């Protein structure tokens, strides 16, 4: 992978032959596990300005109509998050000269509170081509990580690393975005750092990403020269410029109503007619064939859905066609992958082979290897596997051998059925799709996936090691280094990721697992450490970050006692009196379960007063320490329940019990808590600087 320094540039074609579409990742780590930032993309013309406000892509305007830009969302890593952006460079309009990739923090937060700031770029096959680390962003609220720009009919990438003390307001305004605010003078801060080129053409060394360069690639030093801010009169005089707070949309979005209309059936025994019936499915083969056909057909007919599932795999935005049971030559024995996806853009084809599994069936390495070989020989771009299993970072589901002598590279990507259902939920229940027919198709797909007979239920088995590990913990015979403990830790991580998908799809908010590993920790080393802790303590632990909530939802499975604990910590207010805090907390939790445990967290001590909500409601003062001088730092809310003993997903199984516990805790406790300042419109956010 090409390591870049600040101000350097590189031609993408020099790194890979497969850069028609690329995925840029902006990453960071938070020591507390709570820090985050929002990515944004600006398309600039030759004058260094956006053509109109729709050239500014952010969380309220995530997808370009032509498919050239798509914000793909956050992906958890071993020590933080990576926010990915897909670019179809073949679809970028000719008048766009530069693409700026940036991120900003909200309110008074600064990038100095985060660690390991970096930008990466991967080609269409998923191979990481370059990386640039930003290590001097202490006091700024927004940072331009890098930019893609055209030179001599090819695309290059420049490592920028420029910060804005004025946050998103300064960044957006300097590039000509119309912001309706009274923020005053925009201040730009240049981050300290080297400005050496990396061996590319010297004329391409750093020009200021925030300013419109006098001459392209003039070789001037990286400076902080903001473009002049236009007056309100100039902005108002420019026709057709909507404010960024309300990005223009070409069509009204259609979402399904939250409550179903009253049925016209005479009685409850009548079953509605379904586009994708499941009653006739009797074998695993039937389920796999039906699931593949249902998924691929909806992907082809609902462009928003098909694009969402394939953009992260390097597919361009274009006309999609899907096929099932295709026969392809492979030595003496032809192979029949479950499906094929083909996307056509500007006369070029992007092709992926699809292999699906349902129920608890595992992917077969020899089968996937054959498809990888076929794809490499035929010039296909990817092999996509779909199953109930959940892939882990740094731990592929299937090990395949890649022939390094082949120039053409094939990406191997995995989707879980839980992720497919999540993406369908996000579109039809929260974000909306282009028309009512598309919404209905996605609804039928979701009904099919969630039906008990479809076999597409997501991760549903803790594995063969689950029972021996639990028994070993009970009789204290499980030793550190036992490989079965590592298997259980990996299954636990898969379960947590699936719980995040299910809760996020239901809420329409991002729910991500938090990894509090040391900076730069290897995923396998981290899992080995967690396996050793499992052997010593008998507990599995996880934390979930739910967008819009004031903290982290913690989940602990104590295998010694057979109990699940879900908890949430609330920091103490900065102002007011402790008794007022206690009374207000009890009022907010009026509808919470009576058996909710409330613990007062105090400074310098192991714990403060605690009790159930039922006992604290009449006397909130019981939550206060007897010593009035003791400083209260916060409150911890917890619910306990027995966990399932089985390794599967049955009513009495462990997986179902964890899913139910998280759902109950969120819906009965977390929803009543005051969240942080919600992410509002861009007008609200950038106006505050």
Give a summary of the structure in a few sentences.
Helices cover 25% and strands 24% of the residues. By secondary structure, the chain is α+β, with helices and mostly antiparallel strands. The strands form 4 sheets. Strands 18-19-20-21-24-22-23 form a 7-stranded antiparallel beta sheet. It has a 6-stranded mixed beta sheet with strand order 1-10-9-3-7-6, with no helix packed on it.
Describe the structure.
- By secondary structure, the chain is α+β, with helices and mostly antiparallel strands.
- It contains 14 helices and 24 strands.
- Helix content is 25%, strand content 24%.
- A hairpin with a 5-residue loop joins strand 19 and strand 20 (552-558).
Fold blueprint:
Elements: E1 2-4, E2 9-11, E3 21-29, E4 38-44, E5 56-57, E6 69-77, E7 80-88, E8 98-104, E9 115-122, E10 128-134, E11 142-151, E12 154-164, H1 167-174, H2 232-237, H3 284-301, H4 303-310, E13 319-324, E14 339-345, E15 348-356, H5 365-378, E16 382-387, E17 411-416, H6 417-431, H7 436-450, H8 466-474, H9 483-507, E18 511-514, H10 523-537, E19 539-546, E20 552-558, E21 563-571, H11 578-588, E22 597-602, E23 610-612, H12 613-616, E24 632-642, H13 654-668, H14 682-687
Parallel strand pairs: 1-10, 15-16, 16-17
Antiparallel strand pairs: 2-12, 3-7, 3-9, 4-5, 4-8, 6-7, 8-11, 9-10, 11-12, 13-14, 14-15, 18-19, 19-20, 20-21, 21-24, 22-23, 22-24
Helix pairs in contact: 3-4, 3-7, 4-6, 6-7, 6-9, 9-10
């Amino acid at each position: 992978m090409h390591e870049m320094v600040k101000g350097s540039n590189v031609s993408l074609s020099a790194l890979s032959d497969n850069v028609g579409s690329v995925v840029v990742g902006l990453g960071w780590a938070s020591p507390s596990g709570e820090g985050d930032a929002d990515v944004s993309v600006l398309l600039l013309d030759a004058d260094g300005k956006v053509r109109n406000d729709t050239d500014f892509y952010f969380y309220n305007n995530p997808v370009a109509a032509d498919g050239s830009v798509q914000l793909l969302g956050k992906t958890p890593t071993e020590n933080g998050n990576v926010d990915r952006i897909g670019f179809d460079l073949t679809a970028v309009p000719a008048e766009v000269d530069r693409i700026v990739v940036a991120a900003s923090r909200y309110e008074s937060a600064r990038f100095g509170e985060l660690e390991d700031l970096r930008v990466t770029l991967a080609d269409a096959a998923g191979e990481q081509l370059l990386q640039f680390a930003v290590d001097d962003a202490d006091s700024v609220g927004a940072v331009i990580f890098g930019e893609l720009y055209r030179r001599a009919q090819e695309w290059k990438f420049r490592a920028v690393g420029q910060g804005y003390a004025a946050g998103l307001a300064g960044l957006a305004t300097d590039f000509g975005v119309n912001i309706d605010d009274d923020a005053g003078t925009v201040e730009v801060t240049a981050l300290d750092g080297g400005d050496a080129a990396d061996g590319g053409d010297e004329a391409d060394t750093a020009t200021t990403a925030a300013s419109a360069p006098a001459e392209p690639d003039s070789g001037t030093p990286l400076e902080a020269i903001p473009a002049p801010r236009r007056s309100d009169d100039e902005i108002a005089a420019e026709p057709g410029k909507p404010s960024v707070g309300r990005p223009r949309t070409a069509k009204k979005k259609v979402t399904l109503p939250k409550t179903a209309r009253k049925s016209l059936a005479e009685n409850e025994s009548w079953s509605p007619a379904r586009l994708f019936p499941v009653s006739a499915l009797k074998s695993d083969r039937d389920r796999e064939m039906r699931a593949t056909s249902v998924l691929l057909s909806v992907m082809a007919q609902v462009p928003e859905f098909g694009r969402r599932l394939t953009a992260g795999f390097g597919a361009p935005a274009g006309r999609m066609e899907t096929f099932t049971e295709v026969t392809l030559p492979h030595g003496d024995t032809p192979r029949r992958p479950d499906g094929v996806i083909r996307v056509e853009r500007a006369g070029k084809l992007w092709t992926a082979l699809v292999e699906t599994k349902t129920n608890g069936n595992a992917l077969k390495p020899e089968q996937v290897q054959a498809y990888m070989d076929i794809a490499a020989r035929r010039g296909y771009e990817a092999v996509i596997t779909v199953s109930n299993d959940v892939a882990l970072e740094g731990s592929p589901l299937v090990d395949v051998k890649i022939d390094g002598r082949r120039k053409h590279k094939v990406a191997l990507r995995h989707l879980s059925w839980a992720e497919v259902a999540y993406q369908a939920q996000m579109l039809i229940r929260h974000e909306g799709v282009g028309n009512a027919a598309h919404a209905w198709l996605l609804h039928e797909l979701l009904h099919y996936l969630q039906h008990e007979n479809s076999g597409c239920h997501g991760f549903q088995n803790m594995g063969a090691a689950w029972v021996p590990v639990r028994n070993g913990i009970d009789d204290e015979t499980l030793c550190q280094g036992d490989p079965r403990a590592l298997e259980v830790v990996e299954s636990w991580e898969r379960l947590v990721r699936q719980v995040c998908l299910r809760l996020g799809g239901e809420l329409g908010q991002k729910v991500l697992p938090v990894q509090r590993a040391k900076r730069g920790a290897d995923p396998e080393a981290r899992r080995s450490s967690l396996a050793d802790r499992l052997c010593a303590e008998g507990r599995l632990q996880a934390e979930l970050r739910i967008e819009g909530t004031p903290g982290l939802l913690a989940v602990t499975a104590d295998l010694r006692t057979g109990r699940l604990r879900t908890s949430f910590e609330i920091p103490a207010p900065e102002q007011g009196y402790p008794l007022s805090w206690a009374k207000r907390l009890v009022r907010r939790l009026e509808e919470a379960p009576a058996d909710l445990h409330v613990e007062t967290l105090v400074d310098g001590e192991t714990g403060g007063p605690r009790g159930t909500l039922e006992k604290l409601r009449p006397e909130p003062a019981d939550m206060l320490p007897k010593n009035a001088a003791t400083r209260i730092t916060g409150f911890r809310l917890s619910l306990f329940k027995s966990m399932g003993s089985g390794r599967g997903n049955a009513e009495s199984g462990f997986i179902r019990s964890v899913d139910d516990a998280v759902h109950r805790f969120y819906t009965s406790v977390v929803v009543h808590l005051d969240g942080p300042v919600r992410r509002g419109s861009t007008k609200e956010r950038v106006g505050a600087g």
